[in-house]
Amino acid sequence: MHLSIDYRTDYRFTQPQTRVIQMLRVTPASHAGQTIVGWTLDVDCDARLRSQVDGYGNKVTMLYVPGPVDHVSVNVSGEVFTDDTAGVIRDAPEPLPAAVFLRSTPLSAPSRGIRTLATQLLDLEKDELSRLHLLNRELNRSLAFDTGATMVDTDAATAFDAGHGVCQDFSHIFLAAARLMGTPARYISGHLYRRDGAERQPAAHAWVEAHVEGFGWIGFDPTNGISADDAYIRVAAGLDYAGAAPLSGARTGGGGESLDVEVRVRMAQGQQQN
User: Fold this and answer.
1) Would you list the DSSP string of 170-207?
2) Rg of the Cα trace of the chain?
3) Total domains, the chain
4) For residue 255, what are the domain limits?
5) Same domain for 225 and 96
6) Which residues of the chain have pLDDT under 70?
């Protein structure tokens, strides 16, 4: 597919800030199945940008905004060609061995319930790949998608025990269970083309990749119960949300803040005409 992405993030502060620093993981890399043909990042204020690559191989842009500033808008847009590789990731930046992604984190630590699920799946299915597909389907079946139930700092144990959450929570639960079963797994942030026609979305998407012997990294989306295909645009990877979040940072100055996000993923104009 030939996809077009527009991703806008607006920060507003109730009083001027003396400094704003943001880490942006919003620029994807090309790999087999994903070719970036154009990508831009714009900021609506006087800012200094510095690009680098982090320890996970993600493209990172550091954003420094001197004050006084009461509003920062980050706009990302680009076009991507994607192919369906049945979820298998090849030729992506891989600076770390797969075993690193067996490590648990506070956001992906398992609860007793997740441990029970992992044990049951190990008993039911001995083949690793089939077991991961079973986990993917089970989380999709048993958890309710609920945008008002969790926050960005909700961990896997809390979301699983509550039985609902958003794509971030589904992904953290998958990570916890997969790692318990001995499979390296990592959190992926990116974008999803909605085949139901919903171009405008309130946030970026999240899913996971698990490392299977003989195949390498394979993408699983427990929120939708499928493997990642040509509707998915992979941007960043990490041990959990904290390591792959599209935006994170700090500010110096008092008062409150508000955040407004809008993502639009659609067929590129040329493909629409075809």
Assistant:
1) HHHHHHHHHHHTT--EEEEEEEE--TTS--EESS-EEE
2) 19
3) 2
4) 2-81+246-268
5) yes
6) 270-274
